[in-house]
Amino acid sequence: MHRLLLTKPDGRHLTLYGREPIDATLQAPSPFAEPLNASAHLRWHPLRGEWVTYAAYRQGRTFLPPPEYNPLAVTRDPSNPTEVPAGRWDVAVFDNRFPSLGQAEGAAPPPELIVPTAPAAGHCEVVVFTQDPQSSLGALPLDHIDLLLQVWGERTQKLGEREEIKYVLPFENRGAEVGVTLHHPHGQIYAYPVVPPVPGRMQQTAAGHYRSRGKGPLEEMIAGERRSGERVLYEGPHAIAFVPACARYPYEVWVAPIEPVEGFAQLQPAQRADLARALKTALLKYDGLWQRPLPYLMAWYQAPTDGQPHPESHLHAELYPPYRTRDRLKYLAGTEIAAGFFAMDALPEEKARELQAVEVNLT
Amino acid sequence: MHRLLLTKPDGRHLTLYGREPIDATLQAPSPFAEPLNASAHLRWHPLRGEWVTYAAYRQGRTFLPPPEYNPLAVTRDPSNPTEVPAGRWDVAVFDNRFPSLGQAEGAAPPPELIVPTAPAAGHCEVVVFTQDPQSSLGALPLDHIDLLLQVWGERTQKLGEREEIKYVLPFENRGAEVGVTLHHPHGQIYAYPVVPPVPGRMQQTAAGHYRSRGKGPLEEMIAGERRSGERVLYEGPHAIAFVPACARYPYEVWVAPIEPVEGFAQLQPAQRADLARALKTALLKYDGLWQRPLPYLMAWYQAPTDGQPHPESHLHAELYPPYRTRDRLKYLAGTEIAAGFFAMDALPEEKARELQAVEVNLT
């Protein structure tokens, strides 16, 4: 993996990653001239026992691009700079200009309120998956996806080394149905000052399971899915993609290395290559299902970066498409949102059969 | 409160409630002739440590009403029966024909899988708020809303008395944006065989707070909101409506009795009457904000029905509209869904000011 570290005129960081060496004379553009002035703050939610972040300056975005302007495309006209330069690179990572977490130097202190507040330590990054605005993550060559897995590993390590960062979550929101208006293939990385509620509970649950059984719950589940085969979409020497038996979304798919690995940075090259195949298979099956790009939320869960060992952790992606049939969305409503109790009217076995029937070409 | 208990031709229960006595000769109609054949099952989610319910028969609904057919309107033509009879009543409650929870007698056993499974004990009810399909909950007279609060209390008690029911959640999904296609004012009641994840964590958090401080967290928060006044929308002698300082949705509002009460059934008449005023104020402000019906999810949290005392519990509603501005939805995406960590770009104080400025007429 090759990389080039750059700083934008507004002070934000940009790193370019490539399968091939990157021209060291490339410069980092920015659509913004003024330095970033982020000052998010946290408020404690006393009923749920969790933090919420407030970044009011995000409302006041001075930057409202016209629909034809793509800030994630390479800069062609220096008088109209985007977020990334032209030149040979495959993946770009830069600091989010409107972060939900993070504090600029000299930022305003958090307000005093009837609930505890705190500065919103943390960091938000944008990951551009490819220079091609018409492509998609699943359509990229395997070695390009492999590079992205390495990038996620490097970013997790760098962010996780910071004292204040306790959890790093790479994710992709794809499609207008999940709120994305920018269709250039990209994802985000959130680096949190706490282990957030969902990975926190997963980690607690896994730790209890590991203590009593000597294995994490995902390791056991993968063994079960492999034995059954009924919901498996891809099984290689080191990685697997499947509709989990306990899916909460009709077309939910998990992608994971078969052997437990704490995070991207701990993957061996052969594991990572097979994980790229598993991920590409899942994504191509999604887009092949109805012959159109399927929207989804994809999150990659890793071990917390809290400096503790996490033998219970098992790197994996969970993908949630918002559709329950070709033309019907699954809305999260009363029972899901208010109770956290998911109700499904599709069986994972049926949905797995639909996805199994989609042929994909990995070459 | 007057009531009439009826049984539908397909065996489902219907209860009519009224401010005035109800004609005892009314009969319960049903659009269905065959008995209910529900057989939902639960599957254990080993990573999240929670149950998910599967009701595959809901897909196979034989009943697809034409858009002009409203099953919640009163039956006018006996050859085309709806769910409720004509006659003088105010609120109707009946068993959901396509429940996500519940088992008919002789229902199929749960499948054997690689994760634990169980029959989906529990119960799902539909609550028709009014006979008028054009009305809305907030538009109902105060004594009609008061009646509904009594109905929720009676249903909670009846369902909670069942050995297998551990939690009762009344909620309303309102508007196409939250997935509702039937616009007749109505809500639902889910009676769960476990305390679901969200109220479970709220109850645990509150219990810890109560042990250390002798008060529940909502009681303390309400005291703070009353002192500050900055986010209060309604404050009466016994009830309050406010945008919480820790709102996770831009126009989130909580409605609660000021003194902690475990559930609807424990409300004194004066508390209930004021709670009706607080709720009506919040709902009218919602619809007045942009002069159109504002969609929302409203959930009422009460104490678990597990037979234990719950001095830490404090009945309240949380209302989540899905809009962040007049024409922009707030999507729950990466950080909210995958991490459970909410990011807001609006301050609760600003949104409270917008709602405070909406004048409402309670009479």
At a glance:
By secondary structure, the first copy, chain A, is of the alpha+beta class. Helices cover about 25% and strands about 25% of the residues of chain A. Chain A has an 11-stranded antiparallel β-sheet with strand order 1-2-5-7-9-8-13-14-12-11-10, sandwiched between helices. In chain A, strands 4-3-6 form a 3-stranded antiparallel β-sheet, with no helix packed on it.
Q: What features would you describe in this structure?
A:
The structure is a homodimer of 363-residue chains. By secondary structure, chain A is an alpha+beta fold. Chain A folds into 2 domains: 2-196, 2-Layer Sandwich (HIT family, subunit A), CATH 3.30.428.10; 198-356, HIT-like (HIT family, subunit A). Helix content of chain A is 23%, strand content 23%. The first copy, chain A, contains 6 helices and 17 strands. Chain A has helices at residues 142-161, 197-213, 217-228, 269-289, 334-339, 348-356, and strands spanning 2-7, 13-18, 41-45, 50-54, 91-95, 117-119, 123-128, 167-174, 186-192, 232-235, 239-242, 253-257, 296-301, 316-320, 323-325, 328-329, 343-344. In chain A, the strands form 3 sheets. Chain A has an 11-stranded antiparallel sheet, sandwiched between helices. The relative contact order of chain A is 0.12. The model of chain A has no long low-confidence stretch (mean pLDDT 94). At the A-B interface, strand 3, strand 4, strand 8, strand 9 and helix 2 of A face strand 3, strand 4, strand 8, strand 9 and helix 2 of B. Strand 4 of chain A pairs parallel with strand 17 (343-344) of chain B, so a sheet runs across the interface.
